[in-house]
């Protein structure tokens, strides 16, 4: 177990393409960090540089106070779980687990004990004599996990390990990975493009875009105070509604529609306003509201997603299924629930109102301690 | 004589692990998933019609001559074609009692073992080295494969010229170390040249298959091995080679038959019109006795013996070696 310090790491390919641009992340011992972003954002490249499968062009990676830039992958004291499992097809499950230990000269008795322990933990004891091809996708993924566990490495690296599983299995494996990591307390770096996976697994999220870090933070902090429009639209499902508007005095204008902030705000004239679908509610009579023209409804059971337009701009509201949906809806939102972003850079503007949801949660946590 | 099956899957892409699929057909493994789409024919005769040309070729060029050979191996043929006498197993006992024949059999065994081993080993070495270099470099890969496009007889002729008494660079090179190579005169020198040229001719073929096999190994499996095992040599023996086993097994059979039969041309060029004390293999002996000595009966008996040897060898390979082969 060890801390991982990634300092100003860049990846520059032969053609001059910069896949990762001066990324720095400090990972505490035992922490579960999830790198999340769309494909091509450099998250896998970053992970592979930590693993030693890609050379580090610039910067340093330290694992437990040891710079590992020029150290062989096998010597880095890490274990990796691959997307397509990457099990050795010609070896039995037992040998797949034992292979890394054998190569390190671990005594036979200890190999047996460690394999047995990992197999018990992952409930793959009855498959130890089988070859990978006789296993299902979920079982193969467990074996891949087992191969990482038996090594007792300083850190686990996960490269989209659940992407090849079906939806139901993915959810249950997600839970197992989380529990296992908590139990073992091994520092983990996990790559995914699935924001839900990222939210549920991470101690801290690292949102990457175009090779750069957009935001690092705890899942709820990232969700409630996204640092940019990119993070706002990437984290959370449905994505946060982003509406371009202009501020005139205390009012926000979306084309012909107006939202009164009720108090002065020091914003530039042109801004992007972010609205979470679940923060919208049906306006009571006489309350100021946005009028939405309903296009279609997605029923999710516990709630329903109502998709429509406000002054020609797309808007999604998450409403209780009990509410009757008319062709147009009057929706209101508390001004302190609004997110404001710079219209040009997309960066978050400071909230001028009451503390945001996440800060309130933080305070409750502090109060609870 | 056998014809070496051309790797038809090679023509398009190099990525196809052809060998695995080639031999899987011979195995009755119900657990193997069938990826090929099952085709329904409207008429039950149609599939047989499609098979007919291949079956005809096999029948005309393999079964029929085989039956003929077995038949004539029991007869003593008149050299001028005036008739034949049934002699039972006399042709076989004559051959197997002959010291000369047994000597040639011994040489054939050594020759086959050496040619197979070195052509496989060098082909594999080159493929492993090339695989390390060419990743993603299609142009370089194509250039390497072009070697295979040189027609085997031309390659054989070029090999022969390397050992030419007057202009052969290898002869001059050996002379530099005080070794006076006399191909066609000295038994051991001739054997050496035969083996070198035979190996040399077969290397590109093995190279292509091994390279394709190597590229068929998933990158992530290699990467996993990279994290599990520090020593590159050990990684090769424990991960790469076992995954290459289907290709290697296929090549083992192909190379054995190559060394036994298809080296005929090399031997012929080297020992033709030369003094009798030269190494030859069993298949060349069949030719010599049959077409030079006009002893068709004895020659037929020899080819039947050869057929049995290949049959036994192939069964042995499938039973005892293929068991260790892992098909992915």
UniProtKB/TrEMBL annotation, chain A:
Signal peptide (from-to): none
Keywords annotated in UniProt: ATP-binding, Cell inner membrane, Cell membrane, Membrane, Nucleotide-binding, Sugar transport, Translocase, Transport
Domain ABC transporter: 4-235
Bilayer topology: Peripheral membrane protein
GO function terms (MF aspect): ATP binding
Stated family: Belongs to the ABC transporter superfamily.
Protein name, UniProt field: Sn-glycerol 3-phosphate transport system ATP-binding protein
UniProt source species: Rhizobium herbae
Automatic annotation (TrEMBL), chain B:
Keywords noted in UniProt: Cell inner membrane, Cell membrane, Membrane, Transmembrane, Transmembrane helix, Transport
SUPFAM superfamilies named in the record: MetI-like (SSF161098)
UniProt xrefs under CDD domains: TM_PBP2
Classification via PROSITE patterns: ABC_TM1 (PS50928)
Domain ABC transmembrane type-1: 105-317
Residue stretches spanning the membrane: 45-64, 104-128, 140-163, 203-221, 241-261, 301-321
Membrane topology note: Multi-pass membrane protein
InterPro entries per the UniProt record, alphabetical: MetI-like, MetI-like_sf, UgpAE/MalFG_permease
Main location: membrane
Record localization: Cell inner membrane; Cell membrane
Pfam families associated with the record: BPD_transp_1
Annotated function: Part of the ABC transporter complex UgpBAEC involved in sn-glycerol-3-phosphate (G3P) import. Probably responsible for the translocation of the substrate across the membrane.
Family recorded in the similarity comment: Belongs to the binding-protein-dependent transport system permease family.
Subunit text: The complex is composed of two ATP-binding proteins (UgpC), two transmembrane proteins (UgpA and UgpE) and a solute-binding protein (UgpB).
PANTHER family linked: BLL4140 PROTEIN, SN-GLYCEROL-3-PHOSPHATE TRANSPORT SYSTEM PERMEASE PROTEIN UGPA
Protein name: sn-glycerol-3-phosphate transport system permease protein UgpA
Organism the protein comes from: Rhizobium herbae
């Amino acid at each position: 177990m060890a801390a991982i310090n990634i300092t100003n790491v860049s990846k520059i390919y032969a053609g001059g393409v910069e896949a990762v641009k001066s990324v720095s992340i400090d990972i505490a011992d035992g922490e579960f960090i999830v790198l999340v972003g769309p494909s091509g954002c450099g998250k896998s490249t970053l992970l592979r540089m930590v693993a030693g499968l890609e050379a580090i062009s610039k910067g340093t990676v330290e694992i437990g106070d040891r710079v590992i830039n020029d150290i062989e992958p096998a010597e880095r004291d890490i274990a990796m779980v691959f997307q397509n499992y990457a099990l050795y097809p010609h070896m039995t499950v037992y040998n797949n687990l034992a292979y890394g230990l054998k190569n390190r000269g671990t005594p036979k008795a200890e190999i047996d004990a460690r394999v047995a322990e990992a197999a018990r933990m992952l409930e793959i004891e009855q498959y130890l004599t089988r070859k990978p091809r006789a296993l299902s996708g979920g079982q193969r993924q467990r074996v891949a996990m087992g191969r990482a566990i038996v090594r007792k490495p300083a850190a686990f690296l996960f490269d989209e390990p659940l992407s090849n599983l079906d939806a139901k299995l993915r959810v249950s494996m997600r839970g197992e990975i989380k529990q296992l990591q908590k139990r073992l307390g091994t520092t983990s770096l996990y790559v995914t493009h699935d924001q839900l996976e990222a939210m549920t697994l991470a101690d801290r999220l690292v949102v990457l875009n175009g090779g750069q870090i957009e935001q690092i933070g705890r899942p709820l902090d990232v969700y409630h105070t996204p640092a940019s429009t990119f993070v706002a639209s990437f984290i959370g499902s449905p994505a946060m509604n982003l509406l371009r508007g202009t501020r005139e005095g205390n009012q926000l204008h979306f084309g012909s529609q107006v939202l009164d902030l009720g108090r002065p705000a020091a914003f530039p004239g042109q801004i992007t306003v972010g609205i979470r679908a679940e923060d919208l509610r049906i306006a009571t009579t006489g309350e100021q509201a946005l009028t939405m023209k309903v296009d279609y409804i997605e029923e999710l059971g516990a709630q329903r997603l109502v998709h429509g337009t406000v002054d020609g701009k797309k808007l999604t509201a998450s409403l209780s299924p009990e509410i009757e949906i008319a062709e147009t809806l009057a929706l209101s939102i508390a001004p302190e629930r609004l997110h404001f972003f710079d219209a040009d850079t997309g960066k978050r503007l400071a909230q001028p109102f009451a503390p945001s949801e996440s800060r309130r949660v933080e305070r409750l946590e502090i109060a609870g301690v | 004589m056998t014809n070496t099956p051309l790797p038809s899957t090679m023509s398009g892409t190099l990525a196809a692990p052809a060998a695995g699929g080639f031999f899987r057909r011979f195995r009755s493994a119900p657990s193997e998933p069938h990826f090929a789409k099952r085709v329904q024919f409207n008429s039950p005769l149609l599939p047989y019609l499609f098979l007919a040309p291949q079956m005809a070729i096999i029948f005309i060029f393999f079964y029929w001559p085989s039956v003929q050979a077995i038949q004539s191996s029991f007869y003593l043929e008149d050299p001028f074609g005036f008739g034949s006498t049934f002699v039972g197993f006399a042709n076989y006992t004559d051959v197997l009692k002959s010291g000369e024949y047994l000597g040639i059999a011994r040489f054939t065994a050594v020759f086959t073992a050496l040619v197979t081993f070195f052509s496989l080993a060098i082909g594999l070495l080159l493929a492993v080295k090339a695989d390390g270099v060419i990743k993603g470099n299609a142009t370089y890969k194509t250039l390497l494969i072009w070697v295979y496009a040189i027609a085997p007889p031309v390659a054989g002729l070029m090999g022969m010229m390397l050992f030419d008494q007057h202009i052969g660079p290898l002869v001059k090179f050996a002379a530099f170390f005080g070794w006076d190579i006399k191909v066609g005169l000295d038994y051991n020198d001739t054997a050496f040249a035969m083996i070198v040229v035979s190996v040399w001719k077969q290397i590109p073929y093995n190279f292509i298959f091994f390279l394709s096999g190597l590229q068929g190994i998933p990158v992530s499996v290699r990467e996993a091995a990279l994290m599990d095992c520090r020593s590159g040599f050990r990684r090769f023996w424990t991960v790469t080679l076992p995954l290459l086993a289907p290709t290697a097994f296929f090549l083992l059979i192909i190379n054995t038959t190559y060394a036994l039969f298809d080296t005929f041309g090399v031997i012929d060029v080297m020992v033709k019109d030369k003094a009798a004390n030269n190494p030859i293999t069993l298949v060349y002996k069949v030719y010599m006795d049959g077409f030079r000595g006009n002893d068709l009966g004895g020659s037929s008996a020899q080819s039947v013996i050869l057929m049995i040897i290949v049959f036994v060898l192939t069964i042995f390979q499938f039973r005892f070696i293929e068991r260790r082969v892992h098909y992915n």
